[in-house]
Amino acid sequence: MSKTTQTESKKTTAPKRAELGPTMSGSEILVACLEREGVDTIFAYPGGASMEIHQSLTRSKKIRTVLPRHEHGGAFAAEGYARATGRAGVCMATRRPGATNLVTGIADAFMDSVPLIAVTGQVPQHMIGKGGFQETDIYGMTLPIVKHSYLITDINDIPRVVKEAFYIAQTGRPGPVLIDLPKNVQQAKTQPVFPKEIKLRGSDFSIRPTTSP
Amino acid sequence: MGLIEKSERPVLYVGGGIITGNASEKLFRFAEATQIPVTTTIMGCGCFPETHPLSLRWLGMHGTAYANWAVNGEFEQRQKNTDPMNKIANGADLLLAFGVRFDDRVTGKVEKFCETGTIVHVDIDPSEINKNKPAHLPIVSDIKFALGRLCEMIKERPIRKKFTAWHEQIASWKAKAPFAYRVTDEVNRSQHMRDHLQGKENEVILPQMAVEVLYELSKGEAILTTGVGQHQMWAAQFYKFKFPRQFLTSAGLGAMGYGYPAALGAKVACPDREVVDIDGDGSFLMNVQELATAHIEKINAKVMILNNQHLGMVVQWEDRFFQGNRGNTYLGDPENMKQIYPDYPLVCQSFNVKCERVVFKKDLRPAIQRMLDAKEPYVLDIIVPYTEHVLPFVPAGHTVADMIWKLKG
User: Fold this and answer.
1) Are both B298 and B152 inside the same structural domain?
2) Do B164 and B44 meet the contact criterion of CB atoms below 8 Å apart?
């Protein structure tokens, strides 16, 4: 596995030191982070809570956005991409129905140890828990079938979260990682800091044998 | 190493971990150096070339009889699962389980799985160790690292043993029960013959045939995806995989509708490879909307529908366990059974995707060739009988002694 990680990091354009970017919106930061992880294709179905990200994707020169005709298909296509290459497949959907339609694909990736990054748009933070239009707790719903999941509440967390998500999805026993991104975080603006590496306590997945064979 | 030297009948049981761990090459070297036969799980298909003499192909519920015998031992086929198990020949005395998780579709009744063997389990995920089956020697490790170390150790101290008797036993098992099919009386008596073959009974296409022809015409080099059900098993049985990441299937979850979108994803990732989705009529319909994605995005992935107008795998279980009583498993139009429903050529036409229907055997080979030659998305709707069962078949929770593997009639 460690070999894959090495070739993976070679492909990314991340510089050696943490880098300060220009002022950008949350959705632009997300797309910039995906580009830095070497993503060339994303399978994404737009909706109210993810259209900001789609707007940013139209400006990306590195990422091809494939529009499936159902989120179910998008998740499976991302899995097909991941299984054929060994690199993480990326799919994206909007809040409630879009997100729940991804669930089967996430479950499938979990069962068969496929590296998958699922990005979902979420209602604005102040609406979470109010049962507003198309709100769903996709984070809670997918907990038993993900390797890890994130609900981003601070725009400054986006670069670190995306880097961690790709690391977790692709190392050790691979699996799906969910990133839930509320709409107000997508719209907020900040100067992002792109980390060069991440440190996760207790998750050095390059495990060496405990018993001598 | 000591365990290998001591054993008489070792078997390598390897899975998807070899593929995700990029350890196929190391596995190949290890198997060649030790001459230990290799069986894979469905997830592991392609991690060891299935054309290799050491390959036992894949094991489990619908895997090869000889792989199941090699792991569990050969038993007289018993009628009831309360009957005693009479052993004919011994199975493995050493099972090297690398990157696998002892899934119930592999083991059947897990207490009886490789009952007489010493089990060495290597996995990167500590939670898999002793989860389904206790291991005598559990090791938590990256499999590529572990196999690399084993290869180095063998270089220093080569395995002298040849396991000749064991290889002879396996050869005789292979000769006795290869994957096979035949046009049975049941097929000839079926509604399919009356409705669709119109007097040309010797022109019937069995689903297994279609996969075999595809294997031949694509030279065994295509990336295959599947839905879930009988067609998935036949694809795995009659296509011999040579490389890792060649067979993409929803194995653990078993999600119908997986095949076509996954094929699109694989084709986007590997535009230079031939990507074919072998699908069932039920599974394909679950994500039929992705035909639009294929056309608009110009993703040149192919589909071969093995259309039997039924939920084949459930039908098979109905035949075995419910005297053939159909519980909502017919997918055609009950009021017009002579018509193939839905009409895929028409469906595809509305998506601007080329589609061809094949009913007779004489048309099969040229049609598959046309599909492979097409430079655009292409759907081949192959009409097959619903009466075929996937064999061998170890009923869920049963043992190898209950395996049904002889062809009828």
Assistant:
1) no
2) no
Helix A71-85 to helix B259-269 angle (10° resolution) is 50
Residue A20: Cβ within 10 Å count: 9
Burial of residue B35, with CB atoms counted within 10 A of its CB: 0-12 exposed, 13-18 middle, 19 or more buried: middle
Right CATH number for A2-6+22-190 from 3.90.226.10, 3.40.50.970, 3.40.50.720, 1.20.1070.10? 3.40.50.970
Coil, strand, or helix at residue B1? coil
| β-strand partners of A148 | A177
* Cβ atoms of residues B319 and B329 within 8 Å: no
Radius of gyration, alpha carbons of chain B: 22
* Angle between helical axes of A158-170 and A26-36 (0-180°, round to 10): 40
Q: CA angle A110-A112-A116, nearest 5°? A: 55
Instruction: State the nearest Cα–Cα gap between B204 and chain A, in angstroms.
Output: 33
For A35-44, what is each residue's pLDDT tens digit? 999 999 999 9
Pairing of strands B74-75, B87-89: antiparallel
Contact criterion met (CB < 8 Å) for B141 and A85? no
Taking the CA of residue B125 and the nearest CA in chain A, the distance in Å comes to 6
Q: Does B166 lie in the same domain as B311? A: no
Domain count of the fold of chain B: 2
CB pair distance less than 8 Å for A72 and B257:
yes
A-chain CB neighbours of B270 within 8 Å are 84-85
Question: Position B313: which residue type?
Answer: M
CATH number at residue B82: 3.40.50.1220
Encode pLDDT of A137-195 as tens digits.
Answer: 899 999 999 999 999 999 999 999 999 999 999 999 999 999 999 999 999 999 999 99
How far is Cα B47 from Cα B68, in angstroms, rounded to an integer?
18
In angstroms, rounded to a whole number, what is the distance separating the alpha carbons of residues A145 and B62?
27
- Residue A211: closest C-alpha in chain B: B139
Residue-number span of the structural domain to which B248 is assigned:
185-391
Task: Return the closest-CA partner of residue A176 out of A120, A121, A122, A105.
Answer: A105
In a domain? residue B292: yes
Domain assignment of residue B249, yes or no: yes
Contacts of A86 (CB under 8 A, 6+ apart): A4, A115, B20, B22, B245
Both B359 and B290 in one domain: the answer is yes
Give tens-digit pLDDT for B48-96. 999 999 999 999 999 999 999 999 999 998 888 788 899 999 999 999 9
Distance CA B287, CA A201 (A): 41
* Chain B residues whose beta carbon lies within 8 Å of the beta carbon of residue A69: 289-290, 292-293
Range of weakest confidence among A9-18, B28-37, B149-158, B367-376: A9-18
> For position B70, what pLDDT does the model report?
96
User: ipTM value of the model?
Assistant: 0.92
E strand or H helix at B391? none
Where in chain A are the domains?
A: 2-6+22-190
Q: Residues B38, B170: one domain? A: yes
